[in-house]
Write a structure and sequence with these properties.
By secondary structure, this protein is α+β, with helices and mostly antiparallel strands. The protein is built from eight helices and eight strands, in the order αααααββββαββαββα. The termini are far apart.
Length: 253
């Protein structure tokens, strides 16, 4: 009966400490919000997993001791295979430290869209061993943390502006006055657009075999790609109107 009571007490204590570990992580997340360090919350999921693993392992060892299992002798017996186990777990340790590195350096956080190793997707979870990334095709790519930590990661979600660059080819036969009028109107259109960053430029850049090229270079002030597509569509439609209003025409092909 005493062994049963000790076992029940150990299980109950382990469960209590598991709940406390979860509560500590929740309170830490609230503290980071109040302190204005919301970006540091990316460490919380990994910290929660580590704490739960440690509490569960300690509870299991304590339970074995209460059942009169000689844990010390068991651990000593495992010492011979400890080196082999350490070598076998080398990749696991690398992945663990890779995950810690990703969380601390934060090249990309959960929910961010990033480009990595020739692929792209949205980070869904940074685990103890690997990171899960949802691709554009809605598949899930699992990348070991040690590998991902060595890759060049381009965080698309971190951008504050998106480049809008286009080359407009006017047909030969367009007069110099019409070209000047198109340039002036296009510059005014970009300057007056509320979603276009200042210091955009529109320049007559080249004569080609089929066209006289005008380059438009500007930034859309948004990190949302759908918003960028909306603004780009508006700008292109305005360019169509400008070319038609000034009596110019687009080159073919």
């Amino acid at each position: 009966d005493s062994h049963l009571d000790l076992a029940v007490g150990t299980v109950a204590g382990t469960w209590l400490f598991l709940r406390l570990a979860g509560l500590v992580c929740d309170q830490l997340a609230l503290y980071l919000d109040r302190a204005g360090k919301a970006h540091a919350k990316a460490v919380i999921p990994l910290l929660r997993k580590v704490l739960l693993c440690v509490v569960f392992l300690l509870g299991f060892i304590f339970l074995l001791q209460n059942m009169n299992v000689n844990v010390g002798a068991m651990l000593a017996g495992l010492g011979i295979g400890g080196l082999a186990l350490a070598l076998a777990g080398q990749k696991t340790v690398e992945n663990l430290f890779g995950g810690v590195s990703l969380v601390m350096d934060q090249p990309a956080r959960v929910g961010d869209v990033c480009n990595f190793g020739g692929s792209s997707g949205t980070i869904e979870d940074v685990g103890l061993r690997s990171t899960r990334i949802r691709t554009v095709d809605r598949t899930v790519v699992t990348v070991p943390n040690s590998k991902l930590a060595e890759m060049q990661i381009e965080n698309v979600s971190a951008r504050d502006r998106i480049l809008l660059k286009a080359t407009v080819g006017l047909k030969y036969g367009t007069t110099p006055e019409q070209v000047r009028a198109v340039l002036v109107a296009a510059r005014e259109m970009l300057e007056n657009h509320p979603d276009i960053a200042p210091k955009s430029r529109v320049r007559f850049i080249a004569f080609t075999q089929t066209s006289m090229d005008i380059e438009m270079f500007s930034y859309v002030v948004t990190g949302d790609y759908n918003k960028f597509l909306e603004v780009r569509e508006e700008v292109y439609l305005c360019l169509l109107d400008i070319v038609n209003e000034k009596g110019a025409g687009f080159a073919s092909p």
